[in-house]
Hints:
By secondary structure, the protein is of the alpha+beta class. It has helices spanning 2-9, 11-31, 63-66, 70-99; strands at 36-41, 46-51, 56-61. The protein has a single domain, classed as Nucleoid-associated protein YbaB-like domain (Ybab, Chain: A, 2-Layer Sandwich), CATH 3.30.1310.10. The chain has four helices and three strands. The chain is rod-shaped.
Amino acid sequence: MFDSLKALGNLGPMMAKAREMQAKIAEVQARLPTLQATGTAGGGMVTATASGNLELIKLDIAKEALAGDPEFLADLTRAAVNQALKNVQELVRQEMQQAAGGMDLGAFKGMLGA
């Protein structure tokens, strides 16, 4: 019975820690538009940059790629964009995990865009 009461004594610090973690996660969420990651394809012929909001914000295509096969260019573009999105998802995951004090956020994977 007394062990249960001892556990209740820890509730206050646990709640304070939870509020602190929530505030840090909210800070990361507010910074999502500023987080960026890139992906490349075709040896740098196509470079895509995505934001932490999982939006494509920049796409660079080398002139040589424009002169080639349109299907090949589409494949390169798709690969670069997908790599940029994958890279920014990983960056957001790392930022969120750091904000959560290293706690595994696997249960919240859907919220992180993964």
